[in-house]
Write a structure and sequence with these properties.
Blueprint (H helix, E strand, L loop, with lengths): L4 E6 L10 H7 L1 E7 L6 E3 L6 E7 H8 L3 H14 L2 E7 L7 H8 L5 H6 L1
Parallel strand pairs: 1-2, 4-5
Antiparallel strand pairs: 1-3
């Protein structure tokens, strides 16, 4: 048995995840609304002040660890100050085995240790 819920998607989310009709029926999703969220890209209407999800493509996430780190950290701090648990979902795969491969793929000075340590 599932509990009906409404999903909120941030108005700034450029390519929102597309949920199938089958998903709606099987998981109790009543609908999706676009709304300006304080933090994150997605949340559930009834718990929007408690939980948020930040969705990142792998390359976008790596930028957040490097050149855009201050902005990303500010969002994490904002969520913490508001008492919102912020989950980050990273989409993508990599097969990097050393720092040189990471740096070539990202055009940065990131290392495997810095990525895993974050």
């Amino acid at each position: 048995m599932t509990c009906p819920f409404r999903l909120l998607v941030d108005t700034r989310e450029q390519r929102p995840y597309l949920f199938s009709d089958k998903y709606y029926l099987q998981h109790g999703l009543e609908g999706i609304d676009k709304k300006a969220l304080v933090v994150g890209d997605y949340t559930i209407e009834d718990i929007r002040h408690q939980v948020a999800i930040e969705r990142k493509q792998l390359g976008e996430y790596l930028i957040c660890l490097g050149t855009d780190r201050r902005r990303f950290e500010a969002e994490v701090v904002r969520a913490t100050e508001l008492g919102i648990m912020l989950f980050c979902i990273i989409e993508g795969t990599n097969n990097w085995s050393n720092d040189k491969e990471v740096q070539q793929a990202t055009g940065s000075r990131l290392t495997l240790a810095s990525i895993h340590g974050t």
